[in-house]
Design a protein that fits this description.
Elements lengths: L2 E3 L5 E3 L2 E6 L5 H14 L5 H22 L3 E8 L2 E8 L20 H8 L2 E6 L4 E8 L2
Antiparallel strand pairs: 1-2, 3-4, 4-5, 5-7, 6-7
Helix pairs in contact: 1-2, 2-3
């Protein structure tokens, strides 16, 4: 975890959430949303909370459903905004895809992330990858 400096020059830790979720445990999605909402109480950007929860639940769901491994959620609040990262332990990169019109429950997650986040991406992370997004402070 990185630190930030307050006005007195002292280093203070950035508020951060870190959770590990068991493979295929989709109850983790609701837990991730609840924990993120608590963290974002420190952010003071009410307008971004719903978007942050939605995008976080998409990334956690994708990691648990498409990898058959556990996942690690890290969310960090900075003065400039919020960064959420979901790490899994499969190197296969996610693909943006167009949702099938006949299937209203699959294929929209990364499109939502791309549409609603201020920035997002995927990076290799030792064994596996991390999919992340950022929402900037207003």
């Amino acid at each position: 975890m990185e630190d930030r400096t307050d006005s007195g020059g002292d280093r203070i830790p950035a508020p951060q959430l870190r959770r590990r979720f068991a493979r295929r445990d989709l109850r983790a999605v609701a837990e991730a949303r609840r924990a993120l909402r608590e963290l974002l109480g420190q952010w003071g950007r009410a307008a971004g909370v719903d978007t942050a929860e939605l995008l976080t639940s998409e990334l956690v769901t994708n990691a648990l459903v498409h990898t058959d491994h556990e996942a690690v959620l890290t969310a960090t609040v900075w003065p400039r905004g919020l960064r959420v990262e979901v790490r899994d332990f499969v190197g296969r990169r996610p693909r943006l895809r167009v949702a099938d019109a006949d299937d209203d429950t699959h294929g929209r997650g990364l499109m939502l992330v791309q549409s609603l986040a201020d920035a997002w991406g995927v990076r290799a992370h030792g064994v596996g990858k991390a999919v992340w997004f950022e929402l900037h402070a207003a």
